[in-house]
Amino acid sequence: MVNNGKSSRTADETGYHGVDRRTFLKATGAGAAGTALAGCLGDGNGGGGGSNGLTVGHLGPMAIPLGVGSLRSAEMAAEKINENGGVNGGDVEIIEGDTQATPSEAQSVAEELIQQEDVDVLVGAFASEVALSLVDLTSQMDVPFIVTGSASVQVTRDNVGEDYEAYRNIFRTGPVNSALQAEAVAGHCEYLLNRQDWDKVAFLRDNAAWTKSFEELIPGLLDERGIDIVYDSALSINNPDLGSVMDEVAETDADYILRFFAHIDGSPMLSAWHEGQYDFGIEGIHVTGMFPGYYEASQGVSLYETTAQTGGAGVTDITEKTVPFTEEYRERYSDAEEPPTQAPMYMGFTTYDSIFIASNVVNDTGEAPRSNLDGFVDRMLEVDYTGVAGQIQFYGPDSEYPHDLKETRDDEGDVLNFPITQWQDGGDLECVYPEAYRTAEHVKPEWMR
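^ that's the sequence the OP posted. Answer follows.
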């Protein structure tokens, strides 16, 4: 089995295991890694060579809630599929692989899943550095690799797009890539301009692969909308000095910080923000802030921050499946010791959809993906699936982002499938953008009103 160790952690008051509250807040972020969670699911007999059933290797950082929620979502999907006849008369089986959010460990685990567990397909990968580290390995072994957590455009544009025959095995079901995320967030900034009259931005981001598109595109996208960048910094993902950054931003006339944090835990920034009542908002993307229990765990310092997240945390009807899936997840895991217990976090939504899509494709082809990769790829390109995260279709071989998730747009051309949520009074999480999915209007911090 890929990981059959036992966890000896005990829960503290946050619901996280073996850590204090400060460490918990850090661990909910993207950069956390540590000892693996227990669990290898199934008996490993599905195999890449048979036509009955489907064996899926799930790749995720299992020491943090994001990976746990994604694995649980994969299990939920497999259970539903198996209850309805499985795949070509056999069961869908999920086998866990803990990437520990590091490329070297991800490569080792993926190789073990392919060679020893004989998986039919790999699903997952959160950090873009992890996803990029797996493209050569999976392509050389002709194993379909469905990305459900990484946003870097390099995954598709610079691999599938540069050598289609070699990398045709790679697809991304979500999130939309970082170039499209930049466009979606810029649309939110235009909404803030219209609603709050905010036209000056402090632009912060991880110094990491996934933010390169933001660095390239955000200045132009904001300029087109009459929004000025008055402070600009790419922060080291190792021990960033957020206190100094807050003071530097305060010396500008920024209306809000627009930050893109996946590796950086922005909790210290939020604490300083509330304590100092800085005269600017905090908007953008913050993976740590996507944790469903974050408001309580952060003792309320997340109040008024926003973050974009695929699936909109399940608080809005992206499709008719979104809220029921979230409610089912909550019912099933509300008493679980391991977070997340209220919703799976964004990667869970895309992973859940991916298991259904892969199963449908294998049912249609009637063959194991590794036995007929071209057939699997051809059928994937025909997918038009209504999932919990939205409508899923893929760009074709000749597009800028081949095999990438297509964005959905409203009548005005605004990107829909990267909604933005905000923690509001009482710890309620609301969707504030786009209008099609809005459950509440965006609100300023109380001290700014």
